[in-house]
Amino acid sequence: DTAVSQTPKYLVTQMGNDKSIKCEQNLGHDTMYWYKQDSKKFLKIMFSYNNKELIINETVPNRFSPKSPDKAHLNLHINSLELGDSAVYFCASSQDPGRGNTEAFFGQGTRLTVV
Amino acid sequence: AQTVTQSQPEMSVQEAETVTLSCTYDTSESDYYLFWYKQPPSRQMILVIRQEAYKQQNATENRFSVNFQKAAKSFSLKISDSQLGDAAMYFCAYRKWSAGKSTFGDGTTLTVKP
Question: A109 and B43 in contact by Cβ < 8 A?
Fold first, then answer.
């Protein structure tokens, strides 16, 4: 039983293309996130949704647009891909505080390579 | 803004020995969570251990334990009886009590020598 699953695991695409990464969690968590891990392995928050509402939007280019159709899903759409977008993108989810464990559970990551 | 600092980019340990990974953080909050995550070459992020700031007792999970010094804002991870499977990148993370994102340190790459 996969707790947080994201697809695809690998994505190779050309500059200028538009691509999407999908994420689903079956943990019943209220909050979902997108993190970016760059080539130096630094892990930075991009977005956070709580019950389908955007609550965190770090300084991310407008080309990145998250969409949450329901609280179990958080997709990431990227327009006009650039070389610098190459990274591993992690989806994660967590429970609200006061309701037990609050660590983030991560998906297996999507390695995006822009050529 | 909260920051998390891992001052050791790389560490190595002999198999069966003990190693300690350092983490310091900066916050003005009194209630928060601290985590250590492990990222092996498979790139999956795996929770190793969790500490609630209001708990004075240090968290322990089998061979993994922490030394949580709230006043010093220090949260180190001790791995006892190191195994080859412990080789990975380890991230220290902070999360506010009132929900929201986790802030991660830059990671420490741990090598385990046979």
Answer: yes
